[in-house]
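User: Structure tokens for this complex, please. No commentary.
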Amino acid sequence: MSVMDIFETMDYGPAPEAASTALSWLKAHQPFNLFINNQWVKPTSGQYLDSINPATGKVLTQVASANSADVDTAVAAASSTFAQWSATPGHVRARYLYALARQIQKHARLFAVLEALDNGKSIRETRDLDIPLVARHFYYHAGWAQLMASELPGYEPVGVVGQIIPWNFPLLMLAWKIAPAIAMGNTVVLKPARYTPLTALKFAEIVQEIGLPPGVINILTGEASQVGEALVRHPGVKKIAFTGSTDVGRSIRRTTAGSGKKLSLELGGKSPFIVFDDADLDSVVEGVVDAIWFNQGQVCCAGSRLLVQENIADRLHAKLLARMERLRVGDPLDKAIDIGAIVSSAQLQEIQRLVAQGIEEGAQVWQPSWACPTDGYFFPPTLFTNVSPASTIAQVEIFGPVLVAMTFRTPTEAVELANNTRYGLAASIWSENINLALDIAPKIKAGSVWINCTNMFDASSGFGGYRESGFGREGGKEGLYEYLRPAWEVEQAAFSTSTFTEIATGEEHSSSNGASENGATHEENDEPDASFPSGTLPAIDRTPKLFIAGKQARPDSGYSRSVFDSAGRLIGEVGEGNRKDIRNAVEAAHKASGWASGTTHNRAQILYYMAENLSVREDEFARRIVQQTGRSYADARNEVQATLSRLFSYAAWTDKYEGSVHRPPLRGVVLALPEAIGVIGIACPDEYPLLGFISLLAPAIAMGNAVVVVPSQVAPLSATDCYQVFETSDLPSGVVNIVTGERDALSQVLAEHDDVDAMWYFGTADGSQRVELASAGNMKRTWVNYGRPRAWLDTQQGEGQEFLRASTQVKNIWVPYGE
Ligand code: NAD
Ligand code: MN
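Assistant:
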């Protein structure tokens, strides 16, 4: 085609990027081996796998196929380097991260071409988006390595981390995983996706070049069933960071349950793209292009559900069809194409299958009139209209360039439709009315909300899901905690579990030295007269029931459970809660959702009020502790005092745990808001019947959650005595619900419940494992103690930001500005 022809037709001429440098780099290195200890090591299996160019279907090169023996070797390498790397000063680690960022920039073009060849994504995107974001991620985290000692005191790296990444943003996902991990002093074994290993191998070469200490980063290519599963099961791996499908994420949750491995999961999505009738429709059209046709739609946070206000739907659809007609699908290395190749033939077939199903289910399909190239794996931009919200294509993640459109009438309907999904990764909202957009943003259950923009990413702003899109964040300060644990936990792990009883009962344990009838001991000076009036009248029975929806409720079972003192004498009875009671409590908790949207000032006032009402009955609460535990009165008094202080702490935090405003490289701001998680199930520790109960309940409700609490199984009366405190403190009904009974059985019901958003469990190792296992159903967040003790009286262990982080999830709202 001559320039003249092009001029005549006003058609695009080809603008190819040369692949020669990348191809000769591949040729010089093949076959690629495993990267362990900064060396290229032959795989134990002796086997190699093809890596394919999806735009041609042709083999690019061969990479090693690792197996579990190689995983052992790599984890051993990472383990032996960990002590040294984690003790390396932050400034030194910062220099290494900085060097990685610089080296990536120096080889940016090679990376961009390799990524386009291996994945099929367009060079325009790899060059302008993937690779710059990769470099930015290393720069940003070089900063956190530098600041770790001053900004994250009391935290330590977790150890060797196993990282498993998908094929849709191969190098970017590598950066999101590796940069925070090594910045915080961890060492890494990373598995790239089967289809897209090549940029990770070029990255390994850079690791060698900059002289990163051997063993800090190890990269193993191979099959999921070999490398992935072995990493997940390896006892030497202390954390798994995974990005991929929800099904695999769920299986990893189950496999790691009870192991004590930290886990973060970035999973699938079906994100809404909401258009109000006052939106700028030409911007909306370009937004849709970026939302669902960017990266061939193979984007976990793709705006794959177009929700349009009914009165503009036809106009927008017409504009979209016109724009689709002009999109160009083809050679990823052509700088003038919009949509490249689908990553593999299997993925292409899956897209074709779902599109066929959409047609069968009665939706109307729209595609451009032109045809896609036939060698390689291509699929045209596709729009479905007349889609019913319950149909497969409206619910299932297609992971291709396929958009499904639905309509709404009112903002309330838009929110309902947007949240009508099991996922919660992202959303975008289009309206020229910023008041409306900012009102909608908090109502959408998603980790990222983009206002009048979409698919924006930056290292400063955390990314991650709600609900079945997974848990944990990558990027931002919040992302660092995924690679850290409290220092006290690390120190404590060195002790034997026998310290458990000591911490649990306190030093002043005195069950053996003559408890009086009400349990109080007599040798304490500050002890008031302990004798009860011993009149002739029988005491009026006071059997606490369950506490549900602000009222005392009889247990469904009709049974009571006996409570004994430390000497084994019956001191009371509480309700025997069961599955039905938990269901009622969860329902009541859901109805209390107004609690989260109320003011923080109001929530703080109520926590102070609870402290006030508790303090009036300090003596009575202390005696109750003595009675149940046999501890000394002074010790019990101390627990009540600590409880009052704890309520004050969270009343204080309520209007101070506030999030931040990020300034990523755009004209605008990102509002990082810690939001309540929703309904949290809480199983309390047996020790410290009052303090343990309040230490968990208070941060959860302070942050706006509603809770269903199972109090200490052996000493539940301190919690049931609080009913009146709650009733007199203006706590709205349903915010706190209490179900007494068998801790592990009730925890199991809570952990399995699909309307419970998070589950905290402080009990045995076995119970912790069962909670983590059961949580996989709706991928609820869990916080368990693996049977390990916690010093509840100690303010470092018993309160603070660890509890607040567990009570919240960060939502990042992107607000660009300017005309
Ligand atoms: P996948 O879950 O099959 O694979 C992801 C990675 O996990 C790959 O490296 C794979 O080899 C490995 N893997 C697979 N089975 C494993 C197992 N049993 N144990 C250990 N590792 C295993 O997903 P995919 O097909 O590679 O990627 C597409 C999916 O990933 C989509 O559903 C998309 O939603 C999701 N995704 C999510 C995000 C996010 O940030 N949330 C980003 C990209 C992709
Ligand atoms: Mn490939």
